[in-house]
Structure formats: structure tokens, C-alpha cells
Amino acid sequence: MTKPRILCWLILPLLLAAACAGPAKYTDVTTLKELPKDTYVYRIAPGDEVRVEILQDPDYNHETTVLPDGTASFRWIGEVDMYNHTLSEARELLRTKLKPYYTNPTMSLQLKRSNGPDPIVFLGNFGGSTSTGSTPQVNSGGLIAYRKGMGVMEAVARAGGIGEPDIDVAPYLFVVRNIKSLKDRQVFRFDLAEAVRGGSPDLPLHPGDVMFIDQSWLQDLSRALGYVTTVVSSSTQGIGTALLIDTVSDRARN
Fold first, then answer.
1. What is the pLDDT of residues 150-196, one digit of tens each?
2. How far apart are CA 170 and CA 165, in angstroms?
3. pLDDT per residue over 186-244, tens digit each?
4. pTM of the model
5. What ranges do the domains of the chain cover?
6. How far apart are CA 151 and CA 140, in angstroms?
7. What are the backbone dihedrals phi and psi of residue 9, each rounded to the nearest 5 degrees, phi first?
8. Residues 6+ apart with CB under 8 A from 105
9. 101: which of 70, 136, 193, 224 is 20 to 30 A away, CA to CA?
């Protein structure tokens, strides 16, 4: 056997091992000194439903829908540009515009949106759907409505739990953040077995996070992204908003 051929046989197993190995770059959650903060704040978008209540005028209770141009019509003040405002910003805007009609109006603003943040996506070896917060699996994948403060452990429960093998055999769950961005993409490795024993902090999830057990997804995140797109597009409409009814009120302040 010639030297080049011998060298080839020596190198080939190393290349195959490298191809099957885990991802070169990920952050182990147990090594984090501080968990990534979820700074997400919802901003009003077309199709959202807004309800306004004024303490001084119980009859004012008014509901309206944000139009495609971002405006919504309100009693007394007509059309108001609501697009891209946070709920608190929209409340302050309405309070200011309503002051000619009310002396220091005390207001509650409730937002029921039809388009919320990106849902959490789970792929692969999960136990299935639950009655709250997730849809039936589509080609071994499914969605969970994002809720601020939700961690990996709650999301796993909403995905139906981990399927076989037991987490002591395959204890790691991977979370990919910003999967659509090559620049901002992050990968976290979460030790489920250690978390069950109380030895690992729960990782807060962000809108659009993708979680899976089988780390082979990490070898080709472009393929994973395509699969995520398929799962999201085949989901039931409104999954991203299932847990996102929110209200702000200035009654305590006034």
C-alpha cells in the first residue's frame, strides 16, 4: 500500500469523526455567570385589537382594530397612529389626546393582538402536543406560544416532555437563538438531567428560539432553518399570541 493511500485511510476516520461530532461552538448554560436577559417588548402592529377603559367614564369602554396603515380610530379623537408603539407608549399617547375631554384621565389599555412575537419551535424527539400552548407535531416538530419569562423546562413540558431515550442517556437539549442570522446566531447547550437535579439554572427563552435534542441538527443549521420554516408555516394561525393578552393601567399611579 502506497504512502498516500495509507495517509488517506488514516485521515478518513478523523474526517468522519469530525463530521459526526458535536457543534464546534456552543455555550454551556451551566458556565454562564449571568443568564441572557429577555428584553423583548411587544410593539403594536396592524391587525391588533385595542380596548380602552377610562375610570372617570365607564361608558367610554372602546374597542378598535389597528388598520393596515397602522392607525386606529378612537371615540372623540378620531384616528391615531398606533404603529410600532409599545403598550405603555400607546397609553400615554391616548391619555394626552383625551385630556381636552377628561381632566387627568385614568386609563387602562388592553391589547389583544392577532400577530404576536415568533413562537418557540421544537424539533424531533419530544412527546407530542399538550392541551395548552402547543400545536400537534408536524413532521416531528411543533410550536409553543412565546410568553415572557418562559424557561426551557416549561417549554419542554408544553412540548409534551422528552421522548426516549431517557434524559440520563441523552441529557442535552440545544437552543438556537436568532437562527435566521449568521451574525447574531447563538447556540446554548442545556443539561436537562442536571436541571432536574437542581444543578443548572433554567434558561429563559426568547421569541423564535429553536430547541432540539438531536445535535445532528447543528451540523447543518441551514437545513434546520428550512425545517423550522416548514413547521411554522404549517401551524395553526394565532399560535404566537395564545398567551399574550396584556394590559397596562395608570390607576395605581393616579
1. 999 999 988 888 776 555 566 788 999 999 888 889 999 998 888 87
2. 6
3. 999 998 888 878 778 899 999 899 998 877 777 778 888 888 888 877 765 444 443 34
4. 0.65
5. 27-39+116-240, 49-115
6. 21
7. -70, -25
8. 54, 55, 56, 95, 98, 99
9. 70
